[in-house]
Amino acid sequence: MAEEVLSQNEIDALLSAISTGEMDADDLKKEEKQKKVRVYDFKRALRFSKDQIRSLSRIHENFARLLTTYFSAQLRTYINISVASVDQIPYEEFIRSIPKKTILNIYSVEPLDGRVLLEINPNIAYAMMDRILGGKGVSVNKVENLTEIETKIMSQLFEKAIDNLQEAWSSVVDIEPELEEFEVNPQFLQMVSPNETVVVISLNTEIGEASGMINICIPHVVLEPIIPKLSVHYWMQTQTSEREPEEYEALAKGVQKAEVDVSAMLGESSMTIDQFLQLGQGDVIQLDQNIQDPLKMKVDQETKFYVQPGKMKKKVAVQVMEEYRRGDAGDE
């Protein structure tokens, strides 16, 4: 059992109480011997660790950024979507927490079992639809009287939006989300048993002056096969190591195709400006390079090899003799 850590002020207060006689040390020992009971609610079974919840939060922070980009392009207006909270609660409690009439999209997520629910607050959904139809993004809540055209527009909008979930989850598992149902009454939904634990990711959404929540409900049965992959160690280490060979190979091929400037230096010489101005045709410039010494070859102005000049297929060429190392005798 985890021990409770006391602050310095609490420690000082205890010592003061014992020294003044307000508290007996023997009473403290008796309290330590007594068994401590912690209340546990089986209806709110915590089936995900804090580490796994943090991983889910990071995944859907990326999903929120992707949704922001997608909806901004589709609606042609400023939209801000961010993760507000990530909680694990019973499915029944989630259904009670959302409006009696709202926008519900149910998706299958092959190859995972079960289905995922995306609930969009009517205040947000109607602002989106108003923008699509050419309006300013005014929200009018009339979920009970959705026409067939309005239903079609909304279902198509959120059917394409869920493609971003596939990209957000790609670091953990490859899924193929597909819209199966579009509903407005949560009482008609029975995805899992009422006491089943679900993870609810709440996204705070702002569209112009309209604001509301987009909730993603993921049952435990969906996440169960990939729970080990939600740990930080697996996510940061295993997934990275699996991709390293492919990324390294692609990087190596890209580097091999890069073009660089190569030049062989026959030698150098120094002279005054006056001598340079008096140079004429036929004049000979004496270099500091001995004819017996190898030449230096530069790659992008950096000396890399010792070479010797020659010919290859009737063309002037150089042959690499050895690698140039700084500190060799005769270095500049």
Automatic annotation (TrEMBL):
<keyword id="KW-0969">Cilium</keyword>
<keyword id="KW-1003">Cell membrane</keyword>
<keyword id="KW-0283">Flagellar rotation</keyword>
<dbReference type="InterPro" id="IPR001689">
    <property type="entry name" value="Flag_FliM"/>
</dbReference>
<feature type="domain" description="Flagellar motor switch protein FliN-like C-terminal">
    <location>
        <begin position="255"/>
        <end position="322"/>
    </location>
</feature>
<keyword id="KW-0966">Cell projection</keyword>
<dbReference type="InterPro" id="IPR036429">
    <property type="entry name" value="SpoA-like_sf"/>
</dbReference>
<dbReference type="GO" id="GO:0005886">
    <property type="term" value="C:plasma membrane"/>
</dbReference>
<dbReference type="GO" id="GO:0050918">
    <property type="term" value="P:positive chemotaxis"/>
</dbReference>
<keyword id="KW-0472">Membrane</keyword>
<protein>
    <recommendedName>
        <fullName>Flagellar motor switch protein FliM</fullName>
    </recommendedName>
</protein>
<dbReference type="GO" id="GO:0009425">
    <property type="term" value="C:bacterial-type flagellum basal body"/>
</dbReference>
<keyword id="KW-0975">Bacterial flagellum</keyword>
<comment type="similarity">
    <text>Belongs to the FliM family.</text>
</comment>
<dbReference type="InterPro" id="IPR028976">
    <property type="entry name" value="CheC-like_sf"/>
</dbReference>
<dbReference type="GO" id="GO:0071978">
    <property type="term" value="P:bacterial-type flagellum-dependent swarming motility"/>
</dbReference>
<dbReference type="Pfam" id="PF01052">
    <property type="entry name" value="FliMN_C"/>
</dbReference>
<keyword id="KW-0282">Flagellum</keyword>
<dbReference type="InterPro" id="IPR001543">
    <property type="entry name" value="FliN-like_C"/>
</dbReference>
<keyword id="KW-0145">Chemotaxis</keyword>
<dbReference type="GO" id="GO:0003774">
    <property type="term" value="F:cytoskeletal motor activity"/>
</dbReference>
<dbReference type="Pfam" id="PF02154">
    <property type="entry name" value="FliM"/>
</dbReference>
